[in-house]
Amino acid sequence: MNGRSRTMPATECSDFMASVTTHNGLFTVISREMQEVEERLQAPVEEGGGLLSVVARYALSPGGKRIRPALLLLSAQACGADQRERGVMLAAAAEMMHAASLLHDDIVDHAATRRGRPSAMARWGSNVSVLVGDFLFSRAIQSLVEDPNRRILRAFADAVVAMSEAEVLQLHLLHDLGIGEADYLKIITGKTAALMSAACRAGALMADAPDSVVEALAAFGLHLGIGFQLVDDALDYVAREERLGKPVGSDFREGKVTYPVIQVVRRAAPEDRLILERLGASKSPSEDDLAALRGLVERYEAVPATMRLVDEYLARARAELSLVSKSPACHTLHRLVDFVRERDW
Is this model's pTM higher than 0.85 or not? Predict the structure, then answer.
């Protein structure tokens, strides 16, 4: 891999294998490529040196779901690609972009935790975090410009634009209980689904798949990403913190009005609407406030309503796979839909 890969240390290798186990063997068909992605992710980190290396390695360390690189590799394999090294390079670039966006998100959200441990911002501050995020975005771009297919670069560039636009829209609508479903879906489409869609598109383009298949896989990634974020937003009210990797209720604490709250606003009786407005006006809700909010979410069955919308988007995602030839990789994409629906972390 361009002479920049290394042998993964025992601790990182065990973390990677634990991730595979957590996914119930979901990525077995691409397990070798996924391990090479982990190795490749460390190459630019080692070259940075000093504090840059420390923080970048922290941001890229195993422990995330690695959905984006997996989507790229599975899409490529499902379309018949046999260029493993190229796929690993592009998959690693997708994960670098994701890690960079999380660094920036945590600064904007003032998030103290990420994946069950202190966020980079909490440990090193916003100045270091934003610069390391910029570094990871830049290293990803360096990898993408090496690829001969400019449509792949364009796919990721479009995704980054969508992510930035969605982040600004979310900032504009913080604490706004009047946010409509359309704006909410625009935010999660840009922040989460756009990069997943780009990863699927890149994998299909890498395999020189027909345009119809490229578009089908890009749409698969988009619908899967929307479903993924809806599940995330539901888990914020019902998950266990040790599984979720961040405090339950952190979205509302950060001022984000997500789909479960939109459902409460839509259905609440006048007296409960007043309670919700009081909670929404608080810049630093207490644990009692969050408990009251969870009570409203439960009373108005907002999580089941959210999961019904999840099912709609995941059904759309699965339907797009009808244009993809049957193969172990395509079967894994189907299983990934089930994983997104059933996950609790």
Answer: yes
